[in-house]
Amino acid sequence: MAILNFPPTAGEPIDGSFTYTSDGVIYSWDGYKWKVDSSYISNLNDGPLAGFRNQLINGDFRVWQRGVDTSDFTFAAGVPPTDRFIADRWYQNQDTAASTARRVGPGGNLPPGYAYGLLMSTFEQLCQGIELPANGVPGQFHIGSTWTVSYWCNQAGSISTEAPSVKFRETSTGAGGVDVTTSPFGAAIETVVIGGETWMRFSSTFTVDSSPAASHDQLRIGFSNGAAGGRITGVQLEPGPVATPFEHRPIGTELALCQRYFQTILLAGFVANVGSTGPSSALVSVPSGTTFRATPTIANGNQLIFRDSAGAASEYSVVNQISYANSTSNGIRFRFTRLSASASYKQLAGVYDGATESESVQLDAEL
C-alpha cells in the first residue's frame, strides 16, 4: 500500500487546482481536506470493484512455467512468434531477428511492491493476446469503451516513446488485424529511483473505435520502439480513464489464469499398460488441473520415454507415433507405439524431442 505524504497546504489555492499524485491517483485540496479525483472512483466503478480490473494476465511476471531460472530464453532468426513465449502469456512478436529474454528478480532493483520483472533484448516485440468471449465478439472491448494501459519501465527511451499497439486479431493467422484505436501516448505519472536506477510508470488511455472481424478471437496489446536491456513490470490494462495502482492478485489465482493457456504436467511415474510380446500400442491419459482454452498440443517432444521399475534403463517410443486420441480441453490422451516389447518397460518417465529428455510434458493452448 502506498504511503501518502501530502505536501503543506498553507497559502495554497482552495479551488481544486492544488493537487498531489500518488500511484497514479490524483488528490486535490479544497481548503479543508484532500479529495480523491472523482474520475478515479468512476474508473473503479467501471470495473469489478473488488478486483480483477486488470485484463492482462501475469502482468508482474511471477509465473514462468516454461522455465524459472534467470538464464536467457534465446530465439534464432526465423523462429515464429508462436514459439517465442517467455513468461506465461507473454511472447515476442518477431520472426526475422534473433532475440533474448530473461526473468528479473527477486532483488533486481525493481519498483516497490514488485518481486519480478522482464528483461528483453528489445521491447518492440512484447505482446499478449486477451481472449474474446467468442470469435468476432468484442465483449468488454466494445466501441466507445475507454481503457487505460500502465506499466513500469526502467528506461525512459524504451517503450515510452510510442503508444502501445492494440489490435483485434486471429490466433490461427497471427498477422494483420484491426487497429482498436489510434491515440497519442500519455505521459510518465510516477518516478522512483531504486539502487541508483530510475524507474518510471507510464500511462496511456484510449477509446475503442473499431470492431473485430468475424474470425478474430483476441485483443492483442504490444509494446514497441524498444531499447536493449530494458526492463518492465506491473503491466495493467483496466477500464476507465485513470491508471489505478497495479492489481496484485494471489499467486494461486494468477497461476490458474495462466494454466488456461499453458500447463507443465509431470509425467514421471505414470504407468502405461503395454503388451510384452512384440511392438505394441498403448494409451495413457493425463488430466489437466485447469480446463484449457482449446485442445492443447505438446510443446516439448514427439516421443515418450519408458523406464523399467528400477529406473535403470530407458526406451523411447517411435518418432511421430504419438497421437492425441480423444484429447479435450480437460486433458490429453496419448496413443503411442513402442519400439520393442519388454515386460519391464511399463513406467512412463517423460517426453523426448530427439535431443533433450524432460520428466514433464508442456501442453500448449495459447492464443
Unreliable segments (pLDDT under 50, ≥5 consecutive)?
none
In the CATH hierarchy, what is the architecture of the largest domain at level 2?
A: Sandwich
- The total tally of domains equals 3
The chain-level structural class is: mainly beta
Taking the sheet with the most strands, its summary is: 7 strands, antiparallel
Outline:
elongated
Q: What letter string, H or E per element, gives the SSE order?
A: EEEHEEEEEEEEEEEEHEEEEEEEEEE
Question: Quick recap of the structure?
Answer:
The protein has three domains: 1-36, no CATH class; 73-259, Sandwich (Jelly Rolls); 262-364. Helix content is 5%, strand content 34%.
How would you describe this protein?
The chain is mainly beta. It folds into three domains: 1-36, no CATH class; 73-259, Sandwich (Jelly Rolls), CATH 2.60.120; 262-364. Helices cover 5% and strands 34% of the residues. The protein has helices at residues 38-45, 251-259; strands at 19-22, 25-29, 34-36, 73-75, 91-92, 99-104, 117-120, 126-131, 146-153, 165-169, 178-179, 187-194, 197-207, 218-223, 231-239, 262-266, 281-287, 297-298, 303-307, 314-316, 323-324, 331-337, 347-352, 357-358, 360-364. Strand 19 and strand 20 form a beta hairpin. It starts with 18 loop residues before the first strand and ends with a strand. The mean pLDDT is 77.
What are the main properties of this structure?
367 residues, mainly beta, Jelly Rolls, 3 domains, 7-stranded antiparallel beta sheet, 5% helix, elongated
How does the SSE layout of this entry go?
Layout: E1 19-22, E2 25-29, E3 34-36, H1 38-45, E4 73-75, E5 91-92, E6 99-104, E7 117-120, E8 126-131, E9 146-153, E10 165-169, E11 178-179, E12 187-194, E13 197-207, E14 218-223, E15 231-239, H2 251-259, E16 262-266, E17 281-287, E18 297-298, E19 303-307, E20 314-316, E21 323-324, E22 331-337, E23 347-352, E24 357-358, E25 360-364
Antiparallel strand pairs: 1-2, 2-3, 4-6, 5-8, 6-7, 7-15, 8-14, 9-13, 9-15, 10-11, 10-14, 12-13, 16-25, 17-22, 18-25, 19-20, 19-23, 21-22, 23-24
